[in-house]
Amino acid sequence: MTTEEPLLEVRGAAVSYRTRAGTVTAVDGVDLTVRRGEIVALVGESGCGKSSLGRAVLRLEPLAGGEVRFAGVDLGTLSGTPLRQARRRLQMVFQDPQSSLDPRRTVGQIVERPLKVHRAGTPAQRRAKVAETLDLVGLGSRFLDRYPAALSGGQRQRVGIARALVLDPELLVCDEPVSALDVSIQAQILQLLLDLRERLGLALLFVAHDLAVVRHLADRVAVMYLGRIVERGAVDEMFALPRHPYTQALLSAAPVPDVAVERARSVPLAAGDLPDPLAPPSGCAFRTRCPHARPVCAEVTPALVHDVACHRQDELPPFVSPIIHSGG
Amino acid sequence: MVTPAPADEAAVDTRRPLRRGRRGGRRRSIARRLVTLPFLLLGMTLLMFLISRFLPADPAVAFLGNNGADNQQAVDAFNARYGLDRPLWEQYWIYLDRLLHGDLGTSISTSRPVADELAAAFPATLELAVAALLISLVVGIPLGILAAARRSSLFDRLTGGATLLGVSMPPFVLALLALQVLYLQLGWVAGPGRLDPFLDPPPTVTGLMTIDALLAGRPAVALDVLHHLVLPAVVLGVIHGAFFARVVRSTMVDALRGDFVRTARGKGLSGRVIVGRHAFRFALIPTLSLVGLTFGELFAGAITVETITGWPGVGRYMYNAATKLDFPAVMAGTLLIGIAYVLVNLIVDLLYGVADPRVEAS
Amino acid sequence: MTRPVESAPGLRLLRPVSPAQWVGLSIIAAWVLLAVLAPLVSADPLAQQTADRLQAPSFAHPFGTDQLGRDVLSRVLHGGRATLPIGVSIVLLATLVGVPLGALAGFVRGWLDEAVMRVADLLLALPALVLALAIAAALGPSVSSAVIAIAAVMWPRYARLARGQVLTLRQREFVLADRATGASPAQVLWQTVLPNAAPVVTLVAVLDLGTATLAGATLSFLGLGVQPPTPEWGAMVSTAVQTPEAWWASLFPGFALVSFVVAVNLYGQVFDRKGLGR
């Protein structure tokens, strides 16, 4: 992971939607890189544009600006067959394993589908590959003929992961793959993803709304707020010393096992809801919920300086992370 | 094509009155209907033009009949008159021009202008359709309400069976059955025709002979026309009455489950008042919105029913034209029914918009 | 903890659940069986016995004879061999035209959607049977023109249905997932979206069998479908209208038609109530 060319390089990416009420810019000038074998987490509240960015990386949604380079190739220049070929190398795991699996296909057919789409191998080879992949995700071949409706949530998500893995991709975009699952199952799936990285050298772009989920998974984290990255860095540093008020708010929002710390917690950092994305606040988008906002925050949009997009990053009081102090 | 087409509209329509902000929506939709009306009518003429231009192997044969087509002079004249050698859009233009001048072509079987024959037949069909509609509403709405009010009772089940039979009944079979029983066996109704041949028809004012007779002060004639009208009108009325009964029942059942009924119950109103005053209104409105659609079925049903009962309307005219392969007559009749259907629907929707009781209710 | 292997979801929609549905299905099955077996179990429907014209129902002729002295029972049994396949053909043709058009319109959107749906609107704005009559008359009287004419006015129904299904399904995540695997738009539409629309389309098509059969018989009644002397329920009624005193000649084929349509509607009632497929 040194000077090697990044596997995924997103530069100035923008995604916008036209709605009846006007144009929403869901992603606004995001830079992001993922190296081979690296797990990068993209964290933010729902509606912050993290899922849009994840989909735009796979070109499931068009970019309104910027570029996505995969292994040095600008995906935006591809279309038709070359694009579909490129998609073999970057696959996606979806949030809701219930709705992301075709209810009319069996597990075997779902996992075989990408191979068929790419006309890979003979039927016998495909069958072997499907069985192998199902083993890899911890489901045996006995699941081959079952329909998704007959599976539990965790099993479904394993099928979703198997479908993404069967083409031997180099990058997996995981769009909140555990948020629809029971907490007990979440850990299993996260562990599975870590194992897969270990065994296959996979790179992961992991989208989540919860910092706690990515703590033991990611190498690096990027925090998004209203379409922009507000802070990024190595996961340990960010948990130890969150520097953007929004990151601090997210960490405070994480459940704390220690009652004393819970009580001692400072005033809520992020009161209120996400602003209307149709009319985002001027300047720093977070200022409407930020306890440290000053007039300048309404005027100038802060750029990422030392991986933090905050005008007052050098003036903020030191953040006391409840998780660290909890001793757990 | 007897019932399912309106039935799915029903499924959509029944839920509509419970939605908020609907009046504005309806007004907008009426405005849109008015704007699209000319296009719809134009589209219809284009459709008829394309059917008559492209479907028959030889338009000359289709329009002139086999005898006429043997006569080369007649074929040349026909081709020249309709410009069959000119570009397509020009042909369509000629066709439109003729339509606008009231020229619907000449009947092959009678050699008379189709427009005149249709003009004579159309009021009879309208009279039949209106009578059948009245019967269907008078039969269907009370049946549906009673069945819904006594849901799952014996009465409800019997009505359910009878109406299922009704909506499954092809008009021509019921017409035949009615002819057998009511006319041939029991002699309760008058036979074929619209008026006893020994009576003079009243002067045409509205074209609806019952009303014209009353206007002319001749109740005996009106009664005789009515006597002839009963058979076809009852046949079509019963079939569509069954349809209305089913729509009203299902709407009422939905409505009786609704919040406002629970509120009314909470206020201590009796079941009868709730059914009569509240649910009734909610059931009636969607039913009335189906009246326009029903006209299409009535016109279609008229083809066979008028034929069997000898009612001299557009339906019987179309039947005769179809069996004699009188192509110009069939095409013109279809266009007339199509236009009438679109206009009736528009009128019904306009009236429905005016009579919208949601304003009063809120 | 997983439930055992089950059948493909969706087709379960068609499984009868109420007694009324079983009755309907049985009547349908009975008519199909009788139509198939007609040549074995009944007399020649075309054999004329001039001496036995317009005989009332008797032991020899349970349904009587028609104006040419043909056995009405044999003709009713054979009539199903014409009437029922016509209904099925109409629905098949209308589905084969309407579903791909509607699905494509809903998937591609744009001008194609606009064009297909405007044509569909136009066709649905006209009384269906009247338009079918005009088309059949233009094509010339025959079984195939009756089938084509009715399918021509019925396909917009399936186009709308398929379009609506596709518009809903294309929002579903598994369709997005299919695109993400690298499937081409055509693969996504035909292999993933349409199979998921199939159950509802099939259900509606089955329920429409009654309407289609009725329409086909009506065109035959009007002389634009099955031609004499071939027995067909609608055509038989039509011929018998000329001899109203022989009620059996018209009412038995009429009742056969009604019983079949009632059976289809009986079978479909439950779906109607559930609001499925409408």
Order of helices and strands of chain C: HHHHHHHHH
**Helicity of chain C, as a percent range:** over 70%
Structural class of chain A, by secondary structure, is alpha/beta
Helix content of chain A: 25-40%
Family (chain A): Belongs to the ABC transporter superfamily.
GO molecular function (chain A): ATP binding
Domain ABC transporter (chain A): 10-251
Keywords (chain A): ATP-binding, Nucleotide-binding, Transport
Structural summary, described in words:
The complex is a heterotrimer of chains A (328), B (362) and C (278). Chain A is an alpha/beta fold and 328 residues long. Among the domains of chain A are: 100-161, no CATH class; 243-326, no CATH class. Chain A contains twelve helices and ten strands. In chain A, strand 9 (220-225) and strand 10 (228-234) form a beta hairpin. Chain B is mainly α and 362 residues long. Chain B has helices at 4-13, 22-54, 59-70, 72-82, 88-100, 114-149, 154-167, 171-185, 209-215, 219-256, 259-266, 271-289, 291-309, 314-323, 327-354, 358-361. In chain B, helix 7 (154-167) crosses helix 10 (219-256). In chain B, 44% of the residues are buried. Mean pLDDT of chain B is 79; it is low at 1-23 and 357-362. Chain A: Residues 10-251 form the ABC transporter domain. Chain A: It holds the Pfam family ABC_tran.
Observed structural traits:
A: 328 residues; alpha/beta; 12 helices; 20% strand; globular; disordered C terminus; B: 362 residues; mainly alpha; transport (chain C); transmembrane (chain C); membrane (chain C); MetI-like (chain C)
Offer a quick outline of the entry.
The complex is a heterotrimer of chains A (328), B (362) and C (278). Chain A is α/β, with parallel strands linked by helices and 328 residues long.
Question: How is the topology of this model organized?
Answer:
The complex is a heterotrimer of chains A (328), B (362) and C (278).
Chain A: E1 8-19, E2 22-34, E3 39-43, H1 50-57, E4 65-70, E5 73-74, H2 80-87, E6 90-93, H3 107-117, H4 123-136, H5 153-165, E7 171-175, H6 183-200, E8 203-208, H7 211-214, E9 220-225, E10 228-234, H8 235-240, H9 245-253, H10 259-264, H11 295-299, H12 322-325
Parallel strand pairs in A: 3-8, 3-9, 6-7, 7-8
Antiparallel strand pairs in A: 1-2, 1-4, 4-5, 9-10
Helix pairs in contact in A: 3-4, 3-5, 4-5, 5-6
Chain B: H1 4-13, H2 22-54, H3 59-70, H4 72-82, H5 88-100, H6 114-149, H7 154-167, H8 171-185, H9 209-215, H10 219-256, H11 259-266, H12 271-289, H13 291-309, H14 314-323, H15 327-354, H16 358-361
Chain C: H1 19-41, H2 72-108, H3 110-124, H4 128-139, H5 143-169, H6 173-180, H7 185-221, H8 233-240, H9 247-274
